[in-house]
Amino acid sequence: MSAALTIIAAGPGVTLQDAGRHGYLRYGVTAAGPMDRLAMATANLAVGAPEGATAIEVSLGGIELTADGVTLPIAVAGGHFDISLDGQRLPSAARLALTPGARLRIRAGADGAWCYVAVGGRIDVAPMLGSNATHTRSALGGIDGRGLAAGDVLPVRDFNACESGVVTLTTPWLARNGEPIRVILGPQDDYFSRAQIETFGREPWKISHRSDRMAYFLDGPPIVPANGLNVVSDGIVMGAIQVLGDGRPAVLMADRQVTGGYPKIATVIGPDLGRLAQLRPGSPVRFAVTTIDDAVAVRRAQRAMLQARIETTPLVRAPNAELLLGSNLISGVSGGD
Amino acid sequence: MASVAEPIFLDAGEAALVVEFGRAIEPAIHDRVLALDAALSQRALPGVVELVPTIRSLMIHYDPLVIDRAALIDAVRGVSAETVETRPARRWTIPCCYDPTFGEDIAHIAEQLDMTPEHVVALHSGATYRAYMYGFLPGFCYLGGLPQELTVSRRLTIRPPHPTGTIMIGAGMGLITTFAMPTGWWLVGRTPERMFSLDRAQTFLAAVGDEIKFAPIDLATFHALDQRAAAGEVVATMTKLP
Predict the structure, then answer these.
(1) pTM, whole model, 2 decimals?
(2) 8 Å CB contact of A184 and B50
(3) CA nearest B207 in A: which residue?
């Protein structure tokens, strides 16, 4: 029996992503991959898929999809999006059985900018340079290097048997708080004065409306590099905060270019990238300088959380508005584990 | 190599180390980048994820849960101390049509630099370049070796997207493009070659460090070669250097 996910509707910026396209940075090929790696890993692990398996990254534009052929195990995790199955509301981190014809609808919710739809099986599209991660600017990955659109059919192979019902995923690590985003200074912090570095660390910045998968621009006071703008191009990582000629910082994200010649005042630590990515345009953000040792410790702790089994709770009647909404849908259906 | 200055180690977060050999665009600095790139590629240290050679530094992406910063720096110092001979191993001769149709800025450059358009072409096609770095988009190849006489400042305003395969100069460097993109650089010609193509076995042609020459071709030759390149043929020629 062939299985597939069919896209009924997709807003702009909804793409297929996986762990990223690795090994080609030296040829100018961006890794792409998820904006919120932790959330994508969570969704994948919840359906028994490898954490870097191909999944759908849903933007604020939202998506509506269904299963074809067979019932497929699906997990959703990420920001607080509004999730519904055939019109019945589900929690924002959930695992469910998507039966053929049933409509899973995901819309921007209370907060968060990205959400992941993982399937218990393998989304079978032709990899480009060894990866399905979509990088639209270079037309690589996904389906023909573009975002998903209504009518797209994603064949699913090697799918798992499906437990019926909906379970809530307990994912405290996705309950992001308003703590400052931690950064490590450099690699070109010496292009800035001490006062400018202090300004950067003290100011409440705002995520610009000009932000996308390539970069999150920061609105705030300009910090024009005191020691000039002429950096001879060097490598750029996801999280690099480069300061443009007008003194405006931009955090380079998953679709960044791989090399560049603007001074980079600081770099967001890996474990905080997902939390930053989930901030919507207009949101306030602060940065706090940390050390490599601290960053590595946070990285290790985050890894350990992912390696523990994700706890699940069957969605049943409970004195909670959101859960009650869900239970209307699945009353009589037994939960998962 | 042991006598030259110690590189500077800069952090690009907790999972990437920049080994910087200088802050200028110089072949001697790039040689050291290439040497370290070759040595670390060969050694394949556990935890070293990916290496990105650029004009003046090598970016080492690493997994800090596998190799810590101090151990990585020790390893880099170890290989830096070894003598690694690097010189370009291959030369790519890339056909380039300088006809005004494609080399639309040659007249402007000639006027700016007070020379004839023919001299601009002679200088550009007479030079021997080196692939210094890739960046911006897949296959965008930045070239060192642009003759000093061709130094022009960048455009004041961004030009709307140029055609794929456009050969440009700017910022004291040469550039071969692979996608149509807006640019602040100057258009001097166009190559029928695809420096990046998913439709043939060799996705990328030149490696960072390879020598690059441009061979002038006329419009008719451009169109003939363009058809062959579109069919998946490599129309540039590669020679192994002694």
Answers:
(1) 0.92
(2) no
(3) A27
